[in-house]
């Protein structure tokens, strides 16, 4: 078996780099999805609480209870706003991880293309040598048959 060329080493390194970038992208996507799920839960909780507040308003409410509902809704809104920031941040990290993965993949594919071209070139040389040897052999056979 032939010794690995520098190009093969570069392909191996680029493949490892791409694998790591893929893992980082996967983690970023998972974190982003979890952040979006938490946001959805907060929004649903706020909607449920607001509906309960509306129901309570129809049956009557003390001023203190009314203020407590309002304060709690404000706290939920602040939590939702904070979670929206987390979601935006995680989506940005996903975009950055995707770009990094794409760059790694392009590099790996470029090295593979170069390796394929080198193999094709070597194969053409080998085929040319084989053809020359066969031509020489045929010429000798023709010469000796006379």
Please characterize this protein's 3D structure.
The chain is mainly alpha-helical and 146 residues long. Helix content is 94%, strand content 0%. It is built from two helices and no strands. It has helices at 6-59, 63-145. Helix 1 runs antiparallel to helix 2 (63-145). The longest helix has 83 residues, at 63-145. The chain is rod-shaped and about 120 Å long. The mean pLDDT is 91.
Shape: rod-shaped
- Report the end-to-end length measured between terminal Cα atoms: 43 Å
Q: Describe the sheet with the most strands.
A: none
State the low-pLDDT regions, or none: none
Q: Based on helices, strands and strand pairing, what is the structural class? A: mainly alpha
> Taking Cα atoms only, what radius of gyration do you get, to the nearest Å?
34 Å
Q: What proportion of the residues is helical, as a percent range?
A: over 70%
Q: Calculate the mean pLDDT score and round it.
A: 91
Strand content: under 5%
Order of helices and strands: HH
Number of DSSP E strands: 0
Total helical elements:
2
Provide a compact summary of the structure:
This protein has helices spanning 6-59, 63-145.
Compile the SSE list and pairings.
Blueprint: H1 6-59, H2 63-145
Helix pairs in contact: 1-2
Offer a few descriptive terms.
146 residues, mainly alpha, 2 helices, rod-shaped
